[in-house]
Sequence to fold (900 residues):
Amino acid sequence: MKTIIIGAVAAGAKAAMKLKRLLPESEITIYTQDTHVSYSSCGLPYFIKGDFDDFNYLLVKSPEEFEKDGIKVFLKHRVDKIQPQYNKVLVSDLDGKTSFLDTYDNLIIATGARPYIPHIANMNLKNVFVLRRIEDGINVKDAVKRSKRAVIIGSGYIGMELLEAIASNDVHVDIIEKMPNIMPNMDEDVSNLIKEELESIAQGRFEFHTGENVIEFRGDCDSVKQVVTENGKIIDTDMIVIAAGVVPNVEIAKDAGIKIGVTGAIQVDKFMRTNIKNIYACGDCAEKTMMITETPVYIPLGSYASKEGRCAAINASGQVDGFYGILGSTVTRCFDLTISMTGLTTKKALEIGKNPVSTVITKSDRVGYMPEVDNITLKLIADKSSGQLLGAQAVGSKYADKKINSLTSALTAKMTVSEFLNNDNTYSPPYSTTVDLLYNAALKLKDQIE
Amino acid sequence: MKTIIIGAVAAGAKAAMKLKRLLPESEITIYTQDTHVSYSSCGLPYFIKGDFDDFNYLLVKSPEEFEKDGIKVFLKHRVDKIQPQYNKVLVSDLDGKTSFLDTYDNLIIATGARPYIPHIANMNLKNVFVLRRIEDGINVKDAVKRSKRAVIIGSGYIGMELLEAIASNDVHVDIIEKMPNIMPNMDEDVSNLIKEELESIAQGRFEFHTGENVIEFRGDCDSVKQVVTENGKIIDTDMIVIAAGVVPNVEIAKDAGIKIGVTGAIQVDKFMRTNIKNIYACGDCAEKTMMITETPVYIPLGSYASKEGRCAAINASGQVDGFYGILGSTVTRCFDLTISMTGLTTKKALEIGKNPVSTVITKSDRVGYMPEVDNITLKLIADKSSGQLLGAQAVGSKYADKKINSLTSALTAKMTVSEFLNNDNTYSPPYSTTVDLLYNAALKLKDQIE
Fold:
């Protein structure tokens, strides 16, 4: 049996390793356009910041190690076409400029996603970057060393992590967000709180520009020097990182007749199967299911990629394993602020026709008399009619994500607010308050349930 | 309507405040033998350590504040007898040495617990302490300042917190545990790991003596100077703290015909009602229900006391609220080591006839390339036949309790290991590993389920 895997960052790499363990005798070939495999792109902001300076720390497993395990790896090889009727793929060697056909029994598509690039004039100027691959990280880190001012376009979690990374290197950062609020995936009240908290520690090191749409870059000797927004704002800069979200790489799948879901990513079932037999998709190119609503969503995260790659491999091997969906649980650090969420926001819940009620509570993260005590603000959301917990957002101390991770299994179990009130979290003064913030929030929310 | 509340540390104080909010016109009287009300005894180790030096930080609400809210507080008043047939209590004024009767419509027993004192010769020597009330904390803190060597009897979580508190003041600590393992509520493998970890940082500052039963104190000019164990071990010391667990204060309840449960604490239903109408019990004097097994247990913790006090007040007021039980979730800090658990240990699961399987995994608490990365060891336990999660123990970095608190709602929801594998925890490099320790453990445990 031969399996071809397209892409090898998180999902593809995991699929290859798992499949080799399950079927040691089977043939596995990886094709990737990238020059690296199996790396942690989530670590790039910390590499840029200078938490470590050797990018090799980001590499989980080298092509040589894959080869040693009996997995063939073709770097800088692009799959141009999938021919499901012949079980073949057409591959281009990007260096040699040659093409060839290869045959599979199982095909695992793990083509990932690419940065979304908005329409901006003079995009080809120097010192304009995206952040996705190892090379991007090296280039941005290098540019930071040469720069006094940087612009980040987009204030999602990568934008916010880059803000910390770049501003910590004494480079002034202007962060530009098209939407009226930073971190637009979060609810406006939480987003406003994040902005206030960060502005209170900015001390001139960075500035947010919300509701600003970048339409033009202006340069000087080929290098970018200014950013111009639709409202006529002109911001001077030495470098730009575009962090405006990602687009799933689905083109070759679509051309081959593989069904694309409503979110624009490849539609898969819980066994990571596409609509075509023996073709699986996993990772950032694949659609996910939001567990709370059982509806398709596109939230591409490294932790999902790894689990989906594992699941695709098990099913491709002939065994059965299911990946039942996600909650969109995330955590982001921006300086000393932890920003974490899970499940639906109020905004999202309204969009899909739920009747959300919510409560927002701020409380100390530990008992007030303990040293270095800090605050956490929690927004807890439930459905007014059923009482089912829908989601939560937390902002504050480095323990803020603990509150969110206490809620994830409650959301997975589709608990109501009343059921969650029975939850027994740990307590002692260095770790939490006697009455937990989660309990306070659930108690307050319960009063709003019908 | 008049409610008498006996005791006012956590449960009693909470019950009084909640009841006053629900029924502002009702009469509420608190009787307590203590000289303080509404305080955080959990904070005493940190007061002794010197994290703060004013014991007033431990006082949540003063008797004067209660009085201002219309709640009568009688300090140093002991309830000697409950007369359910007359709805009366017999009260002694400990200062005035007088007694009187008072009448109630509702009685809330929140008499708490007292330290368990083992049979040891010469217990009356000076510088022998327990740790329960504010005065105890003041006395121990004072003795630490005068001492070079201290002995702690008992290595439960208070013993371990005292170890950090006292040793951090440059006082050598010998900690003596009767059982073969420290923290005997935990499984032996986890307990051994804790001992190893702590011994590796001891540097002569403290020493564990397990399997040693103290039978005698020896003194010099009335002051304790030596501890003698059954095995003949003699340990020099300037002070002793007995932290050998607690005993619920149930005597007056028992005398009044209130039913005592199998655990020795007052039996209550989920509305905190005793077997006698209009008499409620809550906090450390009351039995709890282990949610996983629906069986009675005696695990007295401040966080339960507060919830139970609230529940007793709501039901006493005529409204309805249930407290459905506990998981025994705890967290303890000993120096830089976090020790946390929830649910059943393997030992406990075997005792009650379950068929437990478990897995122990050690993993870094964050991605390996992040600064100050540390380890967490997790033991995850499930029932072999049903696959139901039974409990977990975690030891390691300051984020170890995050893993336990991710499991608590899974245990509350009676999730199986397979169901828990769908859980979606947050990930980014400063907070966790791409594949979460919980997921690794659940995956490994799943293979052992029938």
